[in-house]
Amino acid sequence: LVNDADFDINNEIQDLNLTGDILTITNNAGATDIDLSDYRETVVGTGDISVVDDGNGNYTVNYVDGDNDDQNEIELPTGGNIGQVLSTDGSGTYTWVDPDSGAAGADGEGFTGGSYDAGSGVVTFTSDDGLGFVTGDLRGADGADGEGFTGGSYDAGSGVVTFTSDDGLGFVTGDLRGADGADGATGAPGAPGAPGAAGADGEGFTGGSYNASTGVVTFTSDDGLGFVTGDLRGADGADGAPGATGPAGDPATDDQTLATTGAAGQISITGGNAITLNVNDADSNASNELQTISRSGTNVILSNGGGTVSIADNDNNSSNEIQTITSTDGSVTVTPNGINYNLSVPTANGAETIVEAAPDTDISVTGTGTSADPYLIANTRPDIFYPPSIEVDVATTGTGRTIDLHAEYLAQYGTPAVVSAGAPTAIPTYANNELYYYVTYYDTTVFANVSVNATGIMTYDVIAAPTDYNTLINVVFVAQ
Length: 480
Description:
480 residues; 3-stranded antiparallel β-sheet; 33 strands
């Protein structure tokens, strides 16, 4: 135990006590009392207002009117009409008057003038109540140079003024000339002026020509302004009246006949003249221009000095020009002289024929053409097509369902419902291992876990019934 000297556990317990404004502590006769009056809030009333303090910090405020009549403070003169206002003369006399109809009041006291001293920047104000005053320097610091117009120009032809400025705010006016004034009275005639200098030669036409076949006139001028007209002949006039019929002709004189006397070159026409044509062949012999060709032995002869040509065989052997060609070993032998020409060629193996794809096509060619490596011609553009449309049962949900896409394709391509005239009854098809199968789209709100194997078996789950008729699965076949 802790010894507190007097073994009294209660005499250490003290209390605070407030009496009036004095704060004390119990069980300590030597403790100093504390005066709290300086911290007390005092509320007092004046005039008709009184304050009652209950000693616990609560105050009651009372107002006494004196005569306890809350109406006798409002006293208005009797009389007055609707719309009038109350006016006073300032001495306690009130009257009802029309608005703004009272006598003018005395001049108010106020400023009566002012002056500015540009040299000092000071303004001096005067007033009729002696309250005038003088300001300090109001000029302030000099401002930056102002932006303003730097010039202008007037265009007499248009009446427009163009203003320029150093702040880019220049502008152009409209036409400032105004309307023309009325003509003034005619002045007295002036004295005749001195004769003017001779004017320059005027520009004008220098000539023209007419083309009777086209009806066109071409004008020329010394200022280059010549021109060509159109056809000026006008339309053809109407046909004139037919003339009188001439006398009948003489059939005896109108018929003419060609004739000759038989003399060389002589020809005449009845009722006309006769001429002699020059048919002279120099020797006047009509037969010496005819030649014959003949053969004498190995010579060919042209008559009348035409000359002779030899057709001799040189060796006079008519049989040695006949030869035969034989081939037994890939070489060629020419007889009878026995000359042997080697024309042997390699044994044919198929590579002698060159097969190439045409440029810019979808065809490729591989191989060398031999039996060991034959040519292979292929279509480089894939054969892509959509299989026929089929119905998929989605009335109920389910998993692991399958469709044989290739079998559905064969069923419709193999037995089409309608065939055009002249077409085969079946469409050519691929085997199931000759195609690639693709699912390009399916409705994920209806189908899930969609897959397709190498032979066209598609597996899928139906997870929900469709909400409209746009639920699809798109399938594409590609030929391998």
